[in-house]
From TrEMBL:
UniProt-recorded name of the protein: F-box domain-containing protein
Length: 467
């Protein structure tokens, strides 16, 4: 133990530090400043603080210098530090003239090869950077393939980084069966929806043939766009299908895929309405509707998607609401429903739009209780309903070469209910009523039942909260 000047050295009868107890106390510290202050009290506590910092949050490596320094730090006491590295996040390793000597890829591969407790890994790639491409180096790919404790792998690429199908396949072939979460935010050489069957006629069938030889036993959740959903042609059971960016052009890929797979019990759909309401009609095939218990609908009306501009008022609220009722009426076993109606409107020097659709969603106009009552009557076994309306309406004044946003009107309004049977005590369960839920309770149920929006839908609707 380090002795503080001015204090007497503890005698033989003095109690010694119980580092196990101190390590437990350290786990209750959430602020880095508190942990650092804790470590400064004596040298014996510094390893405890280092262990906690390494294991409690991801280690973020932003450049070659940080990779080299972290490598030196870890291997200066490898036995004490490597076992506590549980999460790494690596940013594109941009050339740094002030970087420490040594190959950052070699340093990173050494860390990965010895991180036997690593659970989560995030690699942020950019092929715009000529040097230090992590997944372009076989040492990194080989190290990832040997991580037997890895449960979550996220690969994110930056704009301009074009991947090919073969490069993605090479990466996936090295993954261990222990992986529970795989997230690929990759910009693959763009395939327009009408071209899929023309230019990739065998892609889907080849995928399905490959799965007959080897496939996942089950997927908890699949998050992807409508064309990718179709191309994957997955045969294994999927608990939650989370499909984004579905419009009238990509709708058929969703329908065909749902019809050809084991029906999921939970479905999340991010739907673009701006090209017509036809996207909603018969979007959920009967095979899926018969087993669907949880449905999350994010319905987005965006004026950027309206082509031509003369179609600006083609979507009317009454027509949309009637279409939604028809869709819900075809779901006989649905128990949990969440719907978000969102509008993005970007106008130029013409004032806020006097649009019937936009005005119907305004907080002072939208009748949440009436809407929920209609839904309750349409869905016989519904237990929980969550409704929200939101909008982001901007008006810009164009002054070449700059565009200044002069005004912005935005809102998010939401309600939630539990559907209770009025006659539970008398055995009469035919009459039901809406019981409002507190926002905190609603948020808890949304998270527990996994009705949260996908990151893609969150970004598209510009929401900062799930509820």
């Amino acid at each position: 133990m380090e002795v503080t000047p001015g204090l007497a050295e503890p005698g033989a009868g003095s109690p010694s530090l119980n580092l196990d107890v101190l390590a437990t106390l350290c786990t209750f510290l959430t602020d880095d400043r508190d942990i650092l202050s804790f470590s400064e009290t004596c040298s014996a506590l510094r390893p405890v603080a280092v262990m906690h910092l390494l294991s409690s949050r991801p280690v973020v490596l932003r450049n070659p210098t940080s990779v080299g320094k972290f490598h030196d730090f870890v291997f200066s006491d490898a036995a004490a530090r490597l076992p506590h590295i549980t999460a790494l996040e690596v940013y594109p390793l941009v050339d740094d003239p002030d970087a420490c000597a040594g190959d950052p890829i070699e340093c990173l591969s050494s860390i990965l090869s010895c991180a036997f407790s690593l659970v989560a890994l995030v690699l942020r790639e950019s092929y715009l950077i000529r040097n230090y491409k992590c997944l372009g180096d076989p040492r990194i790919v080989a190290a990832i393939g040997k991580l037997t404790t890895l449960r979550s792998l996220t690969v994110v690429n930056y704009p301009g980084n074009m991947w090919t199908i073969s490069s993605v396949s090479t990466l996936l072939s090295h993954l261990q069966s222990t992986l529970a979460t795989l997230r690929l935010d990759l910009l693959i050489a763009q395939m327009h929806v009408p071209d899929l069957t023309e230019f990739y006629p065998e892609f889907r069938e080849r995928n399905r043939e490959a799965q007959e030889r080897r496939t996942w036993t089950r997927l908890q959740q699949l998050i992807c766009g409508a064309p990718t959903f179709y191309l994957l042609g997955l045969l294994c059971p999927i608990d939650i299908c989370n499909i984004h960016d579905c419009d009238v052009h990509s709708k058929q890929y969703v329908v065909d895929t749902l019809q050809g797979m084991r029906p999921p019990s939970r479905l999340k759909l991010h739907v673009k309405l701006s090209k017509g309401l036809e996207v909603l009609r018969e979007l959920i095939p009967p095979e899926t509707a018969a087993t669907l218990t949880h449905l999350t609908l994010c319905l987005v009306y965006d004026d950027y998607d309206r082509l031509p501009r003369s179609d600006a008022l083609s979507i009317q609220w009454d027509e949309l609401w009637q279409t939604v009722q028809v869709v819900l009426g075809q779901l006989p076993v649905l128990t949990h429903l969440r719907i978000l109606f969102h509008c993005n409107d970007r106008s130029t020097a013409r004032g806020f739009p006097d649009d019937h659709f936009v005005n119907a969603l305004r907080p002072a106009t939208f009748d949440f209780t009436a809407a929920a009552s209609t839904i309750m009557l349409a869905v016989p076994y519904l237990q929980y309903a969550f409704l929200a309306t939101s909008a982001c309406i901007t008006i810009s004044r164009r002054a070449w070469p700059e565009v200044a946003v002069a005004e912005c009107d935005r809102w998010l309004n939401s309600r939630a209910w539990r559907i209770a049977a009025l006659g539970e005590a008398r055995g009469d369960a035919t009459r039901r009523e809406l019981v409002p839920l507190h926002p905190g309770k609603a948020e808890t149920i949304i998270r527990h039942e996994d009705l949260v929006l996908s990151d893609y839908a969150e970004e598209d609707t510009r929401l900062s909260t799930h509820y």
